[in-house]
Specification:
Helix content is about 20%, strand content about 50%. The longest helix is centred in the first third of the chain and has 9 residues, at about 25-35. With about 100 residues, the chain is an alpha+beta fold.
């Protein structure tokens, strides 16, 4: 069974070598994801997820950062939902299990 969770967070921008917008997964949800990481990761700590923000559903992978995870937001998603840096958003998310616990 896949792990499901919902959370809210503020969108932030990272300039670094690959510029991207993110929302940070809160500590409690990050801990739950970490607990199933070995059944979900496809390497480098990346965790595949299906996420919904507003009316937009998409698939991506969480990135590990500072003991938590961050959800990348492609421009296509941000434009569809009119999301900007600093926007508070609600995310519904499902961690996709790739090994064992299906």
């Amino acid at each position: 069974m896949n792990l499901q969770c919902s959370f809210s967070g503020e969108v932030w921008y990272w300039r670094g070598p690959a510029p991207f917008h993110f929302v940070t997964v809160p500590p409690a949800e990050s801990a739950a994801i970490k607990a199933v990481e070995k059944h979900a990761t496809y390497g480098w700590g990346m965790i595949p997820v299906r996420a919904t923000i507003g009316n937009t559903e998409f698939e991506t992978a969480l990135w590990p950062k500072d003991g938590q995870y961050i959800l990348p937001l492609k421009d296509k998603i941000r434009k569809a939902e009119q999301i900007e840096v600093g926007s508070a958003i609600l995310v519904a998310m499902e961690v996709v299990m790739t090994h064992g616990s299906r």
